[in-house]
């Protein structure tokens, strides 16, 4: 598993909208669901029905990060409106990149954020430190980083 899907969502986004967005991103970019290590988001959204339920329905593990951690991640598409509302200029791209780095040492954004009316999704690929050595299969539950909190369905 070498992909992390980052998701940002309004409190009004439901599981169907988020799940459809994730499926569309994977399909449009020829990415495989079986390569997804987890869905990553901000702590504020992990406990809400939309993100939590979409991850559960799709069969993906959900991890959550504090917005202070996400705010430190450099992203290609920061949004000042998001920063004003959440405290970070990115949720989807930052969560994808941070989650992939937590699992594999480095990360590359392979899908920049895509949006619906109430949600965004981005995908990062785990990049092994030595390209000659394939990345180990990711296990989000054993990432070992204190700023990652698994969310139980």
Automatic annotation (TrEMBL):
SUPFAM superfamilies in UniProt: CobE/GbiG C-terminal domain-like (SSF159664)
Superkingdom of origin organism: Bacteria
Biased composition regions of type Basic and acidic residues, renumbered to the chain: 144-153
Disordered: annotated segments: 133-153
Domain CobE/GbiG C-terminal: 3-124
GO BP: cobalamin biosynthetic process
PANTHER family per record: COBALT-PRECORRIN-5A HYDROLASE (PTHR37477)
Name listed for the protein in its UniProt record: CobE/GbiG C-terminal domain-containing protein
